Amino acid sequence: MTPHELVAILDKHERWLGNRNGGVRANLAMIDLQGMHLAGCTLQSAKLSGAILTACDMTKANLSYADLFAAHLTKAEMSGCNFFRADMRGAHMRGARLKGAILREADLRGGALLDGRSSGTSVLKSDLGGANFDDALLSRANLSGADMSEVSMSGADCQGAIMTGVNLSGATLKNSNLAKADLKGVNLSGANLSGAILRDCNLAGAILAGAILKNADLLGAKLDGVDLSGADCTGANIARGAENFSLRIQRSLEGHYTWINSNGASGQRADLQSEDLAHIDLSGVNLSGANLKGIKLVGANVSDALLVMSDLSLADLRECNLADATLDGTNFRGSDLSGARLDGAELGSVDIKGPSGKPTGRMWPANLTDTKLIGASLKRTNLRGANLTGADLSYADLTDAILIDANLKGAILEGAILDGAAMPVRSDDDDD
Question: Which residue positions does the secretion signal occupy (predicted)?
Fold first, then answer.
């Protein structure tokens, strides 16, 4: 097709859109338009199925409601394009640039294409690999099954998008908004989701090996069957409700609740030894007296919880939020609390009571011997009388913490912030 012919078709199409005389809807299906200049053109509702638009300049073109089924848009320049509700099933956009494009409610699923050389059909996956979707608007778009490997989607708005089974391996989604998106079974291995908003999205069965989720917000996200052990979740807001864990764990938590509220008359003390409860939300929960030895609570939210006289020895509590928790008399021996947040937490002693219920005068201090508290935040934490023998508090923030009568023998305080901290009185034994 010559440029002159194309201009004539575009002119008639605009007339058609405006219901003017001589107007004809543009039908460019299966036409080879490689490298053509379509920047700023109005192709709303145009027929472009199977069209070859490779390397075309379509900057800020209006393609809303257009039929782009199985169109070839490889390496096309489509920044600022409007694809609102466009049919882009089976489209090929590998290496295309769609920075700031509008793809709200667009259909980018795979599609079945009739094969004229046979009696069958062939299913085409939408190929968007390596495309640039930075700052694009993809809210409520349907991208199910698309190949979006190594795409750049920094700052993209994908709220409510349907992205089940999408291949996003190696993709860059920094600061993107994926709130309430359906990402079931998506492949995000090696993807960068730093600062991304994933609130209330469905990530069930997603692959996150090697993914970067630094400072990402996953509050309320569905994470059934998701393994986060290989992902970098530093600073991420991840809260997994108990309903996301096995029925056995749920029953153990429910049984402990009954045990606590009946003073041991019914229910059963929770035994969650060596269980993996990473990123669970246990804020405000009462797990006092529970056996949590060797438990994995990496990135968990245990703020405002009650864990008095519990066993948390040899536990993995890295990046765990224990702010304002009551942890008096709890055993943390040998646990890793690196990067944990214990601001305002109570880690003091418990006054042991006798069979009659009266205090015996015997105090049971919190045990933090040989714990790792590297880089932990202990602002205003009450550690009065706690046993911190051999604890590593390197670079921990102990601003305004209370350590009166605490045992710091052999503790490492290199780089620790002690501004306003109430320290124990040194004795001659401390020099041994």
Answer: none
